[in-house]
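Human:
Care to share another protein and its fold?

Assistant:
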Amino acid sequence: MRVRRVLSTALLLLGIAAAPAAADSSPSASPSGDSAAPTQAGTSFRTATEIEQGRQATASGSTGDYLYWSFPADAGQRPTVKATVKLPEASTRHAGQTWQLDVYDGLRRRQACQYGAQTRTAAQDAASVDLACTLRTVRSWSETWANDPLPGTYYVRLTVTGLQASDLGLPVGAEVKVDSKDIGGSAAVDGSLAKPLVPGIATSAGKSDSGSGSPTAALSSIEPDDGWSSGWWSDRWVWTAIGGILAALAGIGGYALTRGSGRPSRVPPGA
């Protein structure tokens, strides 16, 4: 009976400890619907339009333009960027077009895609082209020489890389959306950044210090819903605790199986 009570208590503790891990492994929550989705894109890193994860942004432009957006990504997230380009009328085009989606981190280092169609060529009669890029998991810390994704601002650049000169300037539309999967403790590393890589990438329409109406540089105003974690917590702590509990259970079970039933009643105490 005593062993059963110990096992029941340990199993209850396991369930309580596993609850935070299950909550942590769920995908990141979509932003609330209070703010309107952006309807334009920037033309450079400094003027990139900020977008929230889970919200679709749209923009209009011309073939040959560079379209830029930026979004926040925190440690433990694996962002996936998807873009759809609505091409000009087929009757106005003279050949196919090749579009490319690039993602850069806060240091403006181009990040490799784990998978996804980052570059695609649309036929002359195609109405649209879909692009996607799934990044590596964002790490809370990395060596200075490495090109690992780190917490902070990420830039999305969408542009055409192959078309005839006669097709330059034709109107196009673009839709961009970023979602992330929370990887959790399996991607956790020891160490964290002092600050996320969030450089001054936006511009504000207010007056500058000199009183002129020209836009002034401003820091990114978007961050994850729960703030920047920078790797201070991961479900690896939970699984470490579960491992310790399982080890204790194994010790209790081994002792219960090997201790025997005690002194037989027919053997006198002094024997």
About this structure: The mean pLDDT is 78. Helices lie at 2-24, 236-258. The longest strand covers residues 171-182. Residues 2-24 form the longest helix (23 residues).
